[in-house]
Design brief:
257 residues; mainly beta; ADP-ribosylation fold; 7-stranded mixed beta sheet; 6-stranded antiparallel beta sheet; 2 helices; elongated
Length: 257
């Protein structure tokens, strides 16, 4: 554990009313408290350090019932693992689940530069990349390929067409940018994101799914029309059910479509 005076970029979770521990926050406001009272996991303005494991925010504020903002933590700060606490907090823009997922994926890739024990990369056609490590990454760029991960706070990503990205770890992400591809998650408080043309995503109860809706080929690309996201609540969005984006809404789709 370390203590220092600085300003740190972080992500903070709130309830649906933008409250945390019964304290009411407002976007664009700065709040301060007595520096001598700051204590990690006890008192102060808490958040998740943006340079640590961003997706761990779902452990404290599940996506089904929370809102998230970019914040800056300052004054006297105290840090332990991914959590940061300070005597000052400035609440920035509200962000959605896709922003947190991208931040986590970027963090994992950066974190793996000097850590060969926690990564699995593959660029081959019809290939597979898998990983079971904590805070790890499995990525694949080949068409008709697969990337899977079972580690907590980890990332499985795929860029190949007709490919699959899956993750079973808690607070993790499965992302796919390939056309006609899929992303699925089964770990608690995780996110599945599919951004390719005619792609699909599914998740377990309490997880989130994000799917891009794209238009037909225009000679250069499949133009982005909408981004649809939702929490798997068992009512509007069913668990373990494939969804694609159509006409600005998430709609069920057969697994072989």
């Amino acid at each position: 554990m370390e203590e220092k005076k600085t300003t740190i970029k972080a992500y903070k979770g709130f309830d649906k009313d933008l409250k945390c521990r019964d304290f009411q926050y407002e976007i664009g406001k700065t709040y301060t408290m007595d520096e001598n009272e700051v204590s990690i996991c006890n008192k102060g303005f808490h958040a998740i350090d943006a340079d640590e494991c961003p997706l761990s925010i779902f452990s404290y504020y599940p996506p089904a019932s929370s809102r998230y903002c970019e914040v800056e933590i300052g004054g006297r700060t105290d840090k332990s693992e991914e959590k940061i606490v300070g005597s000052e907090i400035s609440v920035g823009a509200e962000i959605g689940i896709p922003v947190i997922v991208k931040a986590h994926t970027d963090w994992v890739k950066q974190h793996l530069i000097d850590d060969n024990e926690h990564k699995s990369f593959n660029t081959g056609y019809c290939s597979s990349a898998s990983n079971t490590g904590y805070c790890s990454s499995a990525s694949n760029t080949g068409n008709y390929s697969s990337a899977s991960n079972t580690g907590y706070c980890s990332s499985a990503s795929n860029t190949g067409n007709y490919s699959s990205a899956s993750n079973m770890g808690y607070c993790s992400s499965a992302s796919n940018t390939g056309n006609y591809s899929s992303a699925k998650v089964s770990g608690k408080d995780s996110v599945a994101i599919a951004t390719g043309y005619r792609s699909k995503a599914k998740g377990a109860m309490g997880c989130a799914i994000v799917v891009a809706e794209r238009g037909e080929w225009n000679g250069e690309t499949y133009p982005l029309i909408n981004i649809c996201s939702a929490i798997v609540d068992g009512e509007k969005i069913k668990p373990d059910t494939w969804y694609t984006a159509k006409n600005g809404q998430l709609v069920e789709v057969e697994s072989n479509n």
